[in-house]
Amino acid sequence: MPDNLKLYEAIVLLALCEEKGTMNGAYVEYATAAALAAELLMLGRIKVDDGNKEKVTLVNDSRTGDSLLDEALTKISDTKWQYQLEYWVEKLAGIKDLKHKVAQALAADGIVASEKEKVLWLFERRVYPEVNPEPEEQLRQEMRNVVLSDENDIEPRIAITIALANSASLLPQVFSKQELKDRKHRIKQIENGELVSKAAKEAIQAIEAAVMIAAIMPAITAATVTSSPSSC
After folding, report:
1. Cα separation of 211 and 90, whole Å?
2. DSSP-derived pairing of the beta strands 55-58 and 115-119
3. CB neighbours of 34 closer than 8 A, spacing ≥ 6?
4. pLDDT tens for each residue of the chain, 232 residues long
5. 16-27: buried (b, 16+ CB within 10 Å) or exposed (e) per residue?
6. Where are the beta strands (DSSP E) in the chain?
7. Among 15, 121, 124, 156, which has the highest number of CB atoms less than 10 A from its own CB?
């Protein structure tokens, strides 16, 4: 995993169109929210309580030093009741301007630029074209190394990133159709947490929640009177 690249940043970086700076991928908000939950699990700020219907328990509410992680942690710590990861993925996906906040963090690190462009000469939208391709290239190569090999010693954060990217339909940007077909079982092993530690496996449960929520979104969208325009 590239140095200092958070899980949620990795997902948005994969979703961004390198040149246009717009967003690709399905349900990126939910995968990003799952990444926030996964980071908090890996940092030991929260845990999944197996003895309490797999509900999320606050372990440590001390600040992480990361503004988005701290915002997510505050939402969890300020809630009186305990909920399962599915609930928190949905709630964290509702953080205002979530994808743009992540993209701005990438811009602050000099990985993308933060720009505005006109759409139909009437509306403005924020775009984030890539200016430093090295972090994404390194991320993609590490993902490929894990999926295309049979090694059992997998770095947990890369395993989580692969599972998150799969939930957001981003793997086709990293692998060919044939590679995805040939390595389907390997990807499923990674998604199931079979090749990582218990802590990482718990974090991957956040991805499972993202997949479940994404599955019900089309029905919700169809029942909505108005719909949001695509980011790309």
Report:
1. 11
2. unpaired
3. 89, 164, 167, 206, 207, 209, 210
4. 887 899 999 999 999 998 888 888 778 899 999 999 999 998 999 988 878 888 999 999 999 999 999 999 999 999 989 998 889 998 999 999 999 999 999 999 999 999 988 777 678 888 999 999 999 999 999 999 999 999 988 898 999 999 999 988 899 999 999 999 999 999 999 988 888 877 778 778 777 777 777 666 544 544 443 334 444 4
5. bbeeebbbbbeb
6. 46-49, 55-58, 115-119, 123-127
7. 15
Distance CA 99, CA 103 (A): 6
| Token digits of residue 86 | 């599915």
Q: How far apart are CA 149 and CA 109, in angstroms?
A: 31
Question: What pTM does this model have?
Answer: 0.87
Long-range pairs, 145-148, Cβ under 8 A, ≥24:
146/190, 147/175, 147/179, 147/183, 147/186, 147/187, 147/190, 148/179, 148/183
Please give the structure tokens belonging to residue 48: 């999944």
Do the Cβ atoms of 77 and 85 come closer than 8 Å?
Answer: no
Helices (H) and strands (E) in the chain, counts: 10, 4
Count of residues in the chain: 232
What distance in Å separates the CA atoms of residue 58 and residue 117, rounded to the nearest whole number? 41
Cβ atoms of 160 and 200 within 8 Å: the answer is yes
- The 8-class DSSP code of residue 229 comes to P
**Rg of the Cα trace of the chain?**
17
